[in-house]
Amino acid sequence: MRIGIIGAGATGLTAAYDLVGDGHDVTVLEGADEIGGLAGSLTVQGTPLERFYHHIFESDRAMIEIIDELGLSPKLTFHSTTTGIFHGGELHDFSTPVDMLKFPPLRLVDRIRFGASSAMLKLIRNGERLGDRRALEWVRRWAGRRAGDVIWEPLLTGKFGSRAPEISMAWLWARVHFRTFKLGYMDGGFHQVYEALLRAVEKRGGTIETGKKLTAVAQPDPAGPVEVRTQDGARYEYDKVLVTVPQPAFAQAAGAGPGDVLQRAEYLGATCFVLECDRSVIPYYWLNINDPSFPFLAVVEHTNMVPPEQYGGRHVIYVGNYVPRDDWRYTTDPAELLERYVPWLRRINPDFDLSWVTDWHFSKAGFAQPVVTPDYRESIPPHETSMPGVVLATMSQVYPQDRGQSYAVAMARRVVQQYFR
Q1: What ranges make up the beta strands (E) of 252-294?
Q2: Which residues does 56 contact at the CB level (< 8 Å), separation at least 6?
Q3: What is the bridge-based pairing of β-strands 390-392 and 240-243?
Q4: Is 415 in contact with 391 (CB distance < 8 Å)?
Q5: Superkingdom of this entry's organism (predicted)?
Q6: Contact in structure between 82 and 71 (CB atoms under 8 Å)
Q7: Which CATH class is domain 96-177?
Q8: Residue 358 burial (C-beta neighbours within 10 Å; 0-12, 13-18, 19+)
Q9: Which residues pair with 236 in a beta bridge?
Q10: Rounded to 5 degrees, what angle do the CA atoms 403, 101, 149 make?
Q11: Which of 213, 283, 312, 318 is 20 to 30 A off residue 418, Cα-Cα?
């Protein structure tokens, strides 16, 4: 078949890799000028680095398997990283169960309840049964009100803002259940995975075109070809199309009406600074900001996991956020936004000065995080669409697990198996 794939992120490229392997004529159309989607990369001192912080867990089997298929396993290393929590104006270690049991802002009984409730989430096999429960209500019942107020509510508020009280417990279960203490990272960046997929697709006769933003997809005759149009005026025809772009983008291109299931997904945008510094800023890989007054939710010092020598001796720090697309942190000029973040970075490290930053990069994505409420499961569209020749595989269909590279790879392989063979 002639197959068109919309989007060259993890889902689109994995599907293309499998489909060209089956002998199909495959073209991938990517709206951006680079591949990788939310795992797209920039360059720090000659080394590719993800625009938004990325790692995988030891439980991310689909991603680990495709890395092995591509012959890249020697580049994948699992690191014992450190985590901290900023609360009450202080940094607190939060890397191990022992750290958690020593966490000063909680009384001993609260720490025990927090640890026991977290262990319970690890033991629950089917977290979908928690889908109709609100996360904050659940954690306050089982972890205790104090642990809910100090640990969980600030993290949920930092992630989802005013929607935090509505977030489903199934989403939080997945965040705890599938995580491992060791984090995996590709030496030289995950960019290598997407480049290897691109090369493999092209070697087998497939085509990948960038700068092809989707504007319309239609199938006038249910038994005929699918028509795809892109912003540059190009027009394509395919026997079947796999759409992997965010659900709202497909809804607009397909002309979905207000009551259509495609219009129900609600997304937050993401903003992220990559700061190249001449010294370390925090003593952890990952620092959760458990203070709702802060304008960002996490600081990630990537070079506390990967040596700074890989980036010309620069210390690489991410400052990330999930925000509505009309929020000031999404719309403000990046240079001004960085200036406004400086006083808050000084609250974490009083010595921090903007002169430490030798260079910086700023990225944002309009559709980065679905808002997973208790009725979310009912609003997930099926992979089959109203057009017989069009299949949808997008991050909003990953449930209850959160969106991520491994789930994107797994979904691509499942959809190819089910709808293209």
Answers
A1: 267-277, 286-289
A2: 63, 64, 183, 184, 185, 404, 405, 406
A3: parallel
A4: yes
A5: Bacteria
A6: no
A7: mainly alpha
A8: middle
A9: 228
A10: 60
A11: 213
pTM tops 0.85, yes or no? yes
Amino acid at 96: T
| Tokens found for residue 364 | 């944002």
Alpha carbon separation from 268 to 133, 292, 315 (Å, rounded): 21, 17, 29
- Cβ atoms < 10 Å from Cβ of 150: 21
> For the chain, what percentages of helix, strand and coil (3-state, to nearest 5) are there?
40, 25, 35
Closest CA to 320 of 32, 9, 51, 45: 51
Cβ pair 298, 397 in contact under 8 A: no
CATH 3.50.50.60 residue ranges in the chain? Answer: 2-66+187-265+374-419
Laid out side by side, the sheet with 214-218 consists of: 214-218, 226-230, 235-238
pLDDT in tens, the chain (421 residues): 999 999 999 999 999 999 999 999 999 999 999 999 999 999 999 999 999 999 999 999 999 999 999 999 999 999 999 999 999 999 999 999 999 999 999 999 999 999 999 999 999 999 999 999 999 999 999 999 999 999 999 999 999 999 999 999 999 999 999 999 999 999 999 999 999 999 999 999 999 999 999 999 999 999 999 999 999 999 999 999 999 999 999 999 999 988 888 988 899 999 999 999 999 999 999 999 999 999 999 999 999 999 999 999 999 999 999 999 999 999 999 999 999 999 999 999 999 999 999 999 999 999 999 999 999 999 999 999 999 999 999 999 999 988 899 999 999 999 999 999 8
For 142, the token pair is 């089982």
**Within a 13 Å sphere around the CA of 140, how many CA atoms are in the beta-carbon half?**
10
